[in-house]
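Morning. Coffee machine broken again, so started the prediction first thing and wrote up yesterday's gels while waiting. Chain of 56 residues, entered below exactly as on the submission form.
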Amino acid sequence: MILQGESSWHLTYGFMAVLFFGAVVASYAASLFLSLLFEAPIVSLLRIVHPLRAWK
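Came back before lunch.
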């Protein structure tokens, strides 16, 4: 039980599982956002510098 704050929380296994999977989903979402934020412009620049050849 956590006794800080205005109310206490009972840390059951279900509540701890929800907190854990919430943290996992939040970290994956943040990593996806950061990956798209930094990787997409670099890939676009690489496609401009080294364009793919058209197949004949």
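The chain has a mean pLDDT of 86. Going to sketch it on the whiteboard this afternoon.
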